[in-house]
Known about the structure:
Layout: E1 5-12, E2 15-22, H1 42-66, H2 73-78, H3 86-94, H4 99-106, H5 111-124, H6 130-138, E3 139-140, E4 145-146
Helix pairs in contact: 3-4, 3-5
Amino acid sequence: MEELLTLDLEEGEGGQRARIVTRSYPSDDRGFVSLTPYCGTPEEMERAVEDLKARLDTLLAEARKVFLPLPQPNRMEQEPFEPESPEELWHAMARCKTLEAMQRLFNPRDPELRREVADLVFSRVNVFKGPGALFSQHYNDEKGLLE
């Protein structure tokens, strides 16, 4: 089953905001979006609900990372910022005020991590405004760099 629940990130007036959303296309002729498959037994329904809870827990963990404090420039000079995941790197980049600051965080990283961040941005972030738009306008897919 295609993943219907996802984390939607947006830059708000007070900083980064997050919400859990679902795609709004109907999955059946009555207009319902299915969150679980049809279940024929209570046990099947329990498993489906547990899977749904696990997905929500995963999204909650991702959302918590949105609110991690951005490394301060003076701290970065003393201690290099080493993100543990593409999400952590993106959340730091999303708080950058300029393309140059975003490039300083992104371009020196391992090419695999840069590709993972690009995949994250293009699949889960609004690329029409805010930091997602800045990233999408300047990302060179062939080089895997922000230019």
